[in-house]
Specification:
Layout (H helix, E strand, L loop, with lengths): L3 H13 L3 H9 L3 H19 L5 H4 L10 H10 L16 H10 L17 H6 L1 E5 L14 E5 H6 L5 H4 L18 H11 L13 H4 L1
Antiparallel strand pairs: 1-2
This protein binds zinc ion.
């Protein structure tokens, strides 16, 4: 099974016990060059399949996009156990709130740019973030009804920005049945731990942009 989510969980548990050194070791256990290479190869296969050099979204600008209720997003992620539903992938994903909290604690190891600049935002955000997928996309008449929603890793979701779903032809698997919730179960305690790390008199942590992680 993919070990990266386990390493991220170890990093989170280490931060909860104020052991930044152990958290750093866990993050360094991730083979980042291999992750970058895998993403590049994946994107190359997608482009070869789609052949739409100008990009799919630009061909269908803003067609009928609808907002999705937060409750429906959460219910979808929980139903799918935060696991990518595409059969070729089935990756366990990690909630973006958790990645942001790790970035806040260890910005040198897990950098993040607020606008996801590719060079400044860590490859984990592009590959393991939990994302909401519409089975039938908006340009093809899809809606934000819960029946049209599923969980995808960001890497798979991003591919559909460039190649139509009917060309990709990806099969969808059933929701996962194991207990994996994208590390969301640690968010309240992680927020507290980071807040105390950033309290006056404490050392370490990133004092910038803490407020946006606490809401
Ligand atoms: Zn995926």
């Amino acid at each position: 099974m993919d070990g990266i989510p386990n390493l991220l969980e170890r990093a989170v548990l280490s931060l909860l016990s104020s052991d930044q050194a152990q958290a750093r070791r866990a993050l360094r256990g991730i083979d980042f060059p291999a992750l970058c290479k895998a993403r590049l190869e994946f994107r190359s296969r997608i482009w070869a399949k789609g052949g739409l050099a100008s990009g799919y979204k630009s061909l269908h600008p803003g067609t009928g996009r609808q907002s999705t209720r937060r409750a429906d997003i959460r219910a979808t992620f929980e139903r799918d156990r935060y696991t990518c539903r595409y059969l070729h992938c089935r990756r366990r994903t990690v909630a973006i709130e958790v990645l942001k909290l790790i970035s806040h604690s260890l910005p040198d190891l897990l950098p993040r740019h607020s606008n996801w600049q590719p060079v400044e935002t860590h490859i984990l955000y592009w590959t393991y973030t939990t994302s909401l997928e519409h089975i039938v996309p908006f340009p093809a008449g899809g809606t934000s009804n819960r029946q049209n929603l599923l969980t995808a890793c960001y890497m798979c979701n991003d591919a559909k920005n460039y190649v139509p779903h009917d060309i990709l032809g990806w099969d969808i698997g059933p929701p996962a049945e194991y207990c994996w919730f994208g590390l969301t179960e640690y968010i309240p305690e992680l927020r507290k731990a980071i807040k105390s790390l950033n309290s006056p008199g404490s050392e370490g942590g990133n004092h910038n942009s803490l407020s946006d992680l606490m809401s």
